Every structure is written in C-alpha cells, then in structure tokens.
Backbone:
C-alpha cells in the first residue's frame, strides 16, 4: 500500500462521551497517523466530543441530515461521498449504518464496514429485515464481543462470513498516585469508595445499585458511592437516593473528563447493568486502573470478567446479591488486590487500544485487497 487510503467514519452525532464515541476516537486518532487518512462525518449534529476531536487535529464534518426516510437525504449523502471519494466507509449505529451503506453503495464506495456496538433486542422486524438486506452489500460487520456476534448471526440472521469480532480497546493515561488523588477528592482514610461509570439510563441498573447500597449492614457507614455519567434518569435517581436515605452517601458527578483519577481514588467498581451491554468501556477502564470489578452477566461483560478470578459476576437485577458482593469485597482487602492485579493483566492481554487498532488495520487492508 503506497498511498494513504481515505476512510470516513459515519455517525449520527458526537455529543456525549460514550463508549461508541470513545472507540471511534481511538480508531481515528491512531490509524490517522499511519497509511490511512481518516475523517469523521456526523449526519445530524456534532457536539462537545466533536470539538475535542477537532482539537486533536481530526476533521469532523456535519451534514445536517436527520431523516433517512427522505430519499433526497440518501442522495445528498451519496453525492457528498462521491465528491469525497473515500476508499472505506465505516458506519456506527442504526441510523448512520442504514443511510450510510445505501448511500455508499450508490456512490460506488469500494469497502463498506458496519460496527455493531451492542445487542439491540428492541429492533422491530422491519429493522431486522433492513439489517439483513444491507448485510448483502457490506464487506464486514465488526462486533465488539462474541455475545454481539451471536446476536447478529442468530437474531439478525446475518451470514457468518460477514461477521468478525474485534474487542473494544482503550488507551490509558499515565498512572496516578492513589494517595494524592484521594486527598484531592477529600476522601477520608477509612472510607470505601464505590464507583460506577455509565450513562444514566434504565438499562445501566443504577436503581439496583442504590437499592443494594441501602441493604448494606454495619459497613454502610464507611461507604461513599460516586456515580459518574449523565442522562435522562438523573433527577429520578437523585430522588430515589433520597427515598433510601442515601443522599449523604452519593455523589452524582455528571460527565467528567478525569475518570482515570476518579477510578484511581476508588476501591470497588460496580456495573449493575440489567440489559444490553456490548463490551463496556468503563469496565475496561476499571481493569486498566486496577479497580476490582463487580458486574452483571449481561452482554459481553462475561468475556471480560471471569467470576472470582478478576472480579465478581452476578445475575442482573438482584440487589441483595449485589449488596452481599459489595460487603464481601469491602471487608477483604487481599481479595480486592488479587482481583485488581488479575484485571490489569487481562486488560493488557486483550483490551489495550493497540490490539484493537492492529485488528482493524488488518481488516481494512484485507477488505481493500479483496474488494
């Protein structure tokens, strides 16, 4: 490959800093420095995260398309792609992947790749049919976990030959001094910090976590819980915390840019998701920063956390079991240390950014060669 190949990542928006957005950024930042020239196109709008990517030298374009039912919008995107002449269009999420692949085919784009970030059980029969039809013109469908791959093959009925699992991978900042960051966040020596990092959505199980915290016994006095993330359930969760008399124990941090520092200051990471997890970025971050993990057996999480080896795995929606698991780790410092160390090893073996980037680069080259 003697020239730079043009790649466009197509998304609906880049407003919140979620898992999908983080993965797009990892790919764009790292592959843009090699033999690929990457651009990010937002169909509808950009947002705060898009501004951050621009500061890092990435080109983010907004197309002002917010309706794929209008065939003129498909033609508008096809015309933009024809002018840009990308070698690869890499789509994310349903709206962008639908309009993007149709427009890409019309524009004669050589390689179409779709990235599936979760298992979308809410898809209607119409959605599933569209996915099945569009898979015929798609070179490869990337799934972020084996669980997501199983969903695509068995529920969407996509041909196995089209599907490839590439685990999410993240870059981590330098290590921080635990003592220093705990002091900066005014954590008392005897306090146990339980942290969760997730959008404030129903499927993330924040209510289950809050209920579990209310069930803690004698250890409750030592607990503080940090809830990091934003979303439509924020006020509801704050009210629920007050109902459980937990408001003095909970800090709602909102969206933060210092999650590595918050993790370093924490003692236990909890993700109490009740449904729909592709491969949680926040769990990977917890492993990277050596925070012992308690998570639920949902989606791709069991591919990251091995029960009683590098964390604890629980059935979803069981606050009593979660309370017992939290209490057990709170009182067993050695076990927390063992899980943290095992989790760090797992991260560097499978989920570091450079591993994901190498797999995607290889896939790009294979598709360009075969296409």
Residues:
């Amino acid at each position: 490959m003697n020239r730079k190949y043009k790649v466009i990542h197509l998304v609906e928006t880049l407003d919140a800093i979620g898992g999908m957005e983080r993965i797009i950024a990892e790919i764009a930042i790292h592959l843009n420095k090699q033999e690929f020239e990457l651009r990010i196109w937002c169909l509808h709008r950009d947002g705060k995260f898009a501004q951050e990517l621009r500061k890092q030298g990435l080109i983010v374009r907004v197309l002002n398309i917010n309706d794929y039912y209008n065939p003129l919008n498909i033609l508008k995107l096809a015309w933009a792609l024809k002018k840009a002449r990308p070698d690869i269009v890499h789509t994310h999420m349903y709206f962008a992947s639908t309009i993007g692949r149709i427009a890409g085919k019309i524009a004669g784009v050589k390689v179409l790749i779709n990235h599936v970030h979760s298992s979308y059980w809410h898809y209607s029969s119409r959605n599933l049919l569209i996915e099945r039809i569009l898979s015929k013109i798609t070179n490869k469908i990337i799934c972020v976990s084996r669980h997501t791959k199983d969903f695509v093959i068995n529920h969407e009925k996509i041909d196995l030959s089209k599907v490839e699992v590439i685990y999410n991978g993240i870059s981590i900042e330098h290590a921080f001094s635990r003592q220093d960051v705990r002091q900066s966040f005014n954590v008392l020596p005897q306090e146990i910090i339980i942290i969760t990092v997730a959008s404030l959505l129903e499927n993330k199980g924040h209510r289950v976590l809050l209920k579990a915290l209310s069930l803690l016994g004698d250890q409750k006095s030592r607990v503080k819980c940090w809830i990091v993330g934003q979303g439509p359930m924020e006020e509801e969760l704050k009210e629920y915390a007050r109902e459980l008399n937990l408001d003095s124990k909970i800090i709602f941090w909102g969206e933060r840019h210092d999650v590595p520092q918050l993790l370093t200051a924490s003692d236990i990471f909890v993700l109490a998701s009740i449904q729909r997890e592709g491969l949680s970025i926040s769990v990977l971050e917890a492993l990277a920063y050596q925070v012992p993990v308690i998570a639920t057996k949902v989606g791709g999480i069991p591919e990251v956390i091995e029960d009683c080896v590098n964390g604890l795995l629980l059935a979803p929606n069981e606050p009593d079991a979660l309370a017992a698991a939290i209490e057990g780790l709170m009182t067993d410092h050695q076990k927390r240390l063992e899980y943290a160390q095992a989790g760090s090893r797992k991260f560097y073996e499978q989920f570091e950014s450079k591993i994901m980037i190498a797999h995607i680069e290889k896939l790009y080259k294979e598709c360009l060669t075969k296409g």
Observations:
- The chain has 14 helices and 13 strands.
